[in-house]
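Archive maintenance. Older records in this collection stored only the sequence; we are now back-filling the structure field for every entry so that each record is complete. The fields below show one back-filled record exactly as it appears after the update. Entries are processed alphabetically, and histidine kinase is next in the queue.

ARCHIVE ENTRY
Title: histidine kinase
Organism field: Streptomyces niphimycinicus
Length field: 466
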Amino acid sequence: MSAPSSGPASGPASATAASATAASSTAASSTAHESLLKAARRQAGALARALVTPSYPATPLFAQSPRRWLRRVPYGVAMILTTILLPTSAQVLSTDYGVGGGVATLIAIVQTTPLLLSVTRPLQAWWIVLLSDIVCAFVVLGTADHLENRVWPWLPGPIIGYLFLLLALALREPRRTLVAVWLVTGTAGLSLGMAFPDKSNGSNVVLFVLGGVVLLVAGALRERGDAQRRLAEQETISEAERAHRTLLEERTRIARELHDVVAHHMSVITVQADSAPYRIGGLPTEAEREFSTIAATARESLAEMRRLLGVLRSEETRGERAPQPGLRQMPQLVEATVRAGIPTTLTIADEVAELEPLPQAVGLSAYRIVQEALANVVRHAPGAATRVAISAAQDRSALTLLVVNGPPVSAPTKPLETSGTGHGLVGMVERVRLVGGMLDTGPLPDGGFRVAARLPLVDLEETDPS
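Back-filled structure field:
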């Protein structure tokens, strides 16, 4: 009994659902239509604003070019066109279209002189020329007896000037402005052609097509030039950042090595202060307390130094636990370079032994400078004969280093010595600054290279690395 009653009940429900679906579909269609209208109005408003918003600052075309003659080209072309088109346009208006001499001259002046303004303010010049061309079309329409064999609505002279103006616009204004200018040009020309179809001979279509080609090609070239200029600027910035990062990395490495040296001295002070009461008998109580205070202060400083070293060490440098090298490790460094295929000789003057013990910072800097110089030889002058000379100044106040290599004789190979910083001359400069020394580098006439350094034999606290 219940089955028959379900049919009538389902009928109104289905109708209600169908009505709701149709209503929602209509609402969605209406919303989409309104969205399209809003988008169209928004784009139209943006194009309209572009026509009245010129680019700033009003710098001349090609103003950023390094070539002086290229910066003057826009002015020269604008002046030449103005000089040619002004009398030509006035003559054509007067003889071919029957416009009075004074009116023809005035129209020609308004049509051509804005070309001079186009070098710095092409959008303002375009407005003047467009309005003057429209006025000229109506003036010619009222004065000429017949236009069957005449160019109309745009005359030949104004077409040439107008194309130059579009070129100046494309080289300066953004893409949206160019689209708006092209659309207004086409709208004005086609409106005149449609209003007077028996008078128009198609010059409006010609200008519309040629104008689009000029705007498209010149705009694309300008955007390509802008992209290349931005890329060059970015590469310059990246190179500067890379150089700065290299400098910071080298300074961090130097600071890490120098802190290793200082930490070693602090350890020695701690041991000596702690063992003094046992090594020296009969010390007064005050002296023992003083040594105890020195040891405690040294231990505290050493703990702080180790924390600082933990900050300076990166994940890649956790394994740097070996003692810092010096002059005694120089023969091993030269041997590694010889194994890399570089015939290298090492000469250490006898008087260098009289300078021992060298300040650790000086010995470390000497080793790193020679290491970087030899690494550069392996990278850039494979197979070149190399000479390393270490000597002392005449007054025994400085250590001198000289690394000289000849021209390369083979293709680059990977160096066997991989413990260098890899920062080349930057690292050498920082090492020399650390001890207040001097560095002289440069190519040789035979194609080789020379690295010379002078490192004063002073303690760290007496050196001003700045």
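Update note: The radius of gyration is 42 Å. The chain has three domains: 68-201, 251-317, 327-462.
Entry marked complete.
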